[in-house]
Amino acid sequence: MFKNKKFNIKEFLSENAVPVVFLTLSIIFVYYSGTQPAIIMNDVVARFARNAFFVLSLLFPVLAGMGLNFGIVVGAMAAQIGIYTALALELSGLPAVLLATVVCIPFALLFGFLSGWLNNKTKGQEMLTSMFVGYFAHGVYMLLFLFIIGGIIPINVYELVLPSGVGARSSLDLTQIKGALDSIVKVDLFTFVFILAALSAVITVANTIKNKKLDVTKTVLTVALVVVGVAGNTLPALSMFKRVVKVPVVTYALIGILCAFISMFFKTKLGQDMRAVGMNMEIAEVSGINVNKTRITANMISVVLSAFGQIMFLQNLGTLSTYTAHQNVGMFAGAALLIGGASVTKATVPQALLGTFLFHLLFNVSPLAGQNIFGSALIGEYFRVFIVYGVIALAIVLHAAKKASGKK
Amino acid sequence: MENLKPVLEMVDVKKSYFGNQVLKGVSLKVMPGEIHALCGENGAGKSTLMNILFGMPVIHSTGGFEGEIRMNGEVIDIKTPRDAMKYGIGMVHQEFMLIPGFTIEENVKLNREPLKESILGKFLGEPMKNLNRDEIRKDTQAALDQLGMDMVPADKVAGLPVGYMQFVEIAREIDKRGVKLLVFDEPTAVLTEGEAERLLAAMRALADQGIAILFITHRLDEVMAATQHITIIRDGAFVKYLNTADTNVTEISALMVGREVEVIERAKHHEASNEIVMEIENLEVNMPGEMVKGVNLKVEKGEILGIGGLAGQGKIGIANGIMGLYSATGKVTFEGKEVALNNPKAAINAQIAFVSEDRRGVGLLLDESIAFNIAVPAMQNQGKFLKKYGPISLMDQAAITENANKYIEELDIRCTGPNQNVRRLSGGNQQKVCIAKALTSEPKIIFVSEPTRGIDIGAKRLVLDTLVKLNEEEGMTVVITSSELAELKSVCDRIAIVTEGKVVGVLPASESDAKFGLLMSGITEGMEG
Amino acid sequence: MEKAKKLIQDYGVSRFIVTCFAILLLVVAFLQGQDMNILFSDIINRFGMYAFFSLAMVPSIISGTLLNFGITLGILAGVLAGLISLELGMTGLTGIGFALALAIPFGVIVGFAYGLLLNKVKGSEMVVATYVGYAAVYIMCIGWMVLPFKNPAMVWAIGGEGLRTTITLDGYYDAILSGMWNFQIGGVTIQGGMIAIIALACFIVYLFTRSKMGIAMRAAGANPIYASAVGVNVNKQRIIGTILSTVLGALGIIIYAQAFGFYQLYTAPMNMSMYPVAAVLIGGATTRKIKISHVLLGTVLYQTIITVAVPVASILVPDGGLGDVVRIIVSNGIILYALAQAGGNK
């Protein structure tokens, strides 16, 4: 029934137009930024590690039909509550991170439940709702951190509260937990490539035994990784990369585990229900799936994951801007997912990963490229934010236009 | 056969909605392995009967029903659709309940997926168990094989031809374990002839495997071709149980539509004339569910013309097409001038008025006042109800209220006053507002679609009387589209019957029910309109 | 009791709560011994600054494009017109007259294009409007940097690039309208000129809603199928509604700027649309229905809360911006409430 698909460049480009455009743009910008690629790479590796969770967390609401859930900022807020608690208990290092994680989970579940419930009240407008959920929650968050902390809940750690004793300081030093995850094991880029190659080899062998047939793609991938690793360790042209780029292995392992979890999740009954709800709520309902509950579950998972994401983000960054750190989390993650080639209704793990990479590459190089192309770094900065909103606006317009024309 | 117990028996089923009795004692008996037809006009009570059989919430939230349902001789209690499923009753819907983005197998097994253990499931329980893809495929393949369909379970539904989607629906029903009775509700309405034949073959194959089939259809030739027995209901009452072998199409159609009709007294009947006021040539209208596929019709000046036919055959589409509400092609000439199609303004400016079948959706602004509703079309198209103040003209509230008061009195619209919102009016009064709205533009011809749908008996009479009065006193040409043949026969001069998107005949209203019934079933041999 | 309940319901529960809150704030302010004259003068001033934006919601809601979160586009058009008036060195009434006059064609052009877009995305207007607005703000950020303005009062002095973040109207048309025909009643400054202008604008919008076109727009917004069945071109009405809303936004920012004393560029217009949206919702409008009275009452209530909350809160809790927090919670809460209400009607 199926014809053998031939690789068609035109088709490939039109199906992956968005990532291709952004890849091209990134390459141009990298060139004009005049920075050593290895230095850029090191920064992007770090940015990728601290942002991947947010982008991946968006897969759940997207597949459950709620679009880009800008409300994941409430997850980030939950994480900040967790971190603040850890600081207040004067913990540091890995225990602090673990405690923050434990503390943030109930908050994230609660916030996820509430915003999911609101999403169910406003079906069809979820993206707008989730955005305002973020703004509204920001107000409540400020109330908590500005007045309740120190005001009602006593905090005894001097560095955490404003001189008056009421309200959290707007910038908190996280030196004691900086790198709690990242610094456990750090390797250079090509060692990391070897680790990946080893992993890939194990999977290939397992697959081959299981299916009694050689898994060709995975074999090629393994070999390619080995080649890259060897080249990196031997070619002088790449020595800069080997010296400069450091990969936080534990953080990447966590991202890997999340990716595995997501792909396993969508093979389960609940995952299938979520997809069904995302594609057509009415039919799912008629078939006996509890649509509202499924949507709330998706939202809660997403918020919890974004809370984890914010903890990973903060332990990497080393400072917490108490009142602003969460604000753009949803927006940036949404834009990254779209840049990876996803749409408002369809997204995959590879798209999320690719999008995170491209987005942060562009984010890194924009100011310097702006400086060198337009003579102003500020233009580059405005441009990259424009990209964020522009790509979201475009995706929403395309989706809405499709929805509107389908109704007629 | 006779000594077998019937799979399904519904005995003397009665049902009222808010004091309005829609089922007046219907009985139905379906034997195992037979295909049984349930025939009746629109509104005869078929869907209510099926809603009862499936335990739909609409039945139980309105006080339940009287009578008994038995399966294999045992009295059963069906309170929810889940109960119906448990007893082995399946339904193939008219609209597809399929998710296009899913594969055939995913649709067949939707929310009934066989599961298997998984890593996540071990920790997190049932919802996190993996789908058992192998079993899903195996079951789906088996169901498709049972239907004799050569389809690939892993194909996406989105790309399938419409006819195939129907089979996916059926596959899903027969995959439900222990299905004993399958209801097919108008399954061939959307199918091509070839597809319909294949469907009938599949139905026969299922019946041969012992599954009883209840077949609801308007296509009497299919009834004759596929069924063993027929139950006919009319106006909510049981009419007759027939052996298909002992009857014919004419008898069935006469039984379906035949009823006593109270003819509304008319002072004078329109004399057949040759003065054609409107000519419709080769009109095609793309109205989903009511496609018009080349209608030719002449409307005589000063007559009341009825357009009848079964639901979904396209009669509703004619007026909607002429009025520009759905895209149309063809030629419509009114008083010698061609009326531009696809342009509501052109039709309104030609002094053609329309009272839509969809009062609340198309006819009214529910949150605006009666007076406002009546005035808007005349204001927008004829510049009525505007007062000039120098260069600007504003709406003339006084004139609008006065006009509304006039119609409230003339049409006896029951309301608290012209400023009441129309949302709170009863169906009959809303309909009168729609008529007033149409009349305010002083039309020369008025199209009225389903004028009495969803209106109680007393108001029905008033609405029809109003139309007759308009015709007699103002000499207005009236075209009424209605699914109720009796209603058309009571007020019209001539009635055109639309079947499969075409006018299959125009008969005087006094013609016998059997002739109309035959036309409606699409059988036109030996008859010229 | 029953009667009171009914009265509250007729008035609207959310509107009732907000009104009570506003009154409570005023009472607390009085008890704290705040200078009520200054507070009331402030409320009137801020009412004048924001009324046009709120009024801009009327055509968009009536024509069925719902709450116009994209008023940002009108604001950008208005700022551009205003900057041109400054660049040309125009001052006084001529200056603001020129700016307002220029804002109209700018608003029409932007509104037309924006209307075309909204017609393509029926059912998702609000979220599209929000993000298109955000994107436009950043495009214009680049615009403010590269547009060839030369007036030294507007561009950064040596070393800077592009236009200043805030551009003072001092010496141009600072407070030209909000300082016109002012008079005092018991110490409260009443801005006669501003109130007259707003009254005039409201009256014009009111007349429009009663004109033939206004009626057509109302029909198109309330029930597009009804409207096209009676010969109204729904898409055209939606575009006109969007244009009017955008133009009102463009005029609004110039009036705002003269009262405020500055044009604010770059990211300042980002969330300007939230103010009028929250205000009209507080006033009793819904995503589908609005009256001039909703605009006026809503703007007064909303600005009262914002104006009074800050000094009241600063006495209650000396540090930190409790007033601002209250504003954020109230305005976003009311928007969420309205969205949930609109969703519940489906």
What portion of residues of chain B is helical? 25-40%
Number of domains as seen in the coordinates of chain A: 1
Number of helices of chain A: 17
Distance between the termini of chain A: 33 Å
Q: Give the low-confidence spans of chain A.
A: none
| Amino-to-carboxy terminus distance of chain B | 43 Å
Summed up, the helix count of chain B is: 19
Total strands of chain B: the figure is: 24
Helix vs. strand class of chain B: alpha/beta
Oligomeric state of this protein:
heterotrimer
* CATH architectural designation of the largest domain in chain B: 3-Layer(aba) Sandwich
Principal-axis shape of chain A:
globular
Biggest sheet details of chain A = 2 strands, antiparallel
What is the CATH homology-level superfamily of the largest domain in chain B?
Answer: P-loop containing nucleotide triphosphate hydrolases
Strand percentage of chain B, roughly?
A: 25-35%
What percentage of residues of chain A falls in helices of 4 or more residues? over 70%
Count all strands of chain A and give the number. Answer: 4
Computed CA radius of gyration of chain B, to the nearest angstrom? 26 Å
Task: Give the tags.
heterotrimer, B: 529 residues, alpha/beta, Rossmann fold, six-stranded mixed beta sheet, 19 helices, 35% helix, globular, C: 346 residues, mainly alpha, two-stranded antiparallel sheet, two-stranded antiparallel ribbon, 13 helices, 4 strands
Characterize the structure shown:
- The complex is a heterotrimer of chains A (about 400), B (about 525) and C (about 350).
- Chain A is mainly α and about 400 residues long.
- Chain A has one domain.
- Chain A has 17 helices and four strands.
- The radius of gyration of chain A is 22 Å and the shape is globular.
- Chain B is α/β, with parallel strands linked by helices and about 525 residues long.
- Chain B is built from 19 helices and 24 strands.
- In chain B, the strands form six sheets. In chain B, strands 6-9-10-3-11-12 form a six-stranded mixed beta sheet.
- In chain B, strand 23 and strand 24 form a beta hairpin.
- In chain B, helix 6 crosses helix 7, helix 10 packs across helix 19 and helix 14 packs parallel to helix 16.
- Chain B is globular.
- Chain C is mainly α and about 350 residues long.
- Chain C has a domain of about 230 residues.
- Chain C has 13 helices and four strands.
- In chain C, the strands form two sheets. In chain C, strands 1-4 form a two-stranded antiparallel ribbon. Chain C has a two-stranded antiparallel sheet with strand order 2-3.
- In chain C, strand 2 and strand 3 form a beta hairpin.
- Chain C is globular and about 70 Å long.
- The two termini of chain C are about 30 Å apart.
- The model of chain C has no long low-confidence stretch (mean pLDDT about 90).
- The chains are: A mainly alpha (about 400), B alpha/beta (about 525), C mainly alpha (about 350).
- The interface between B and C is medium-sized, with 28 and 18 residues.
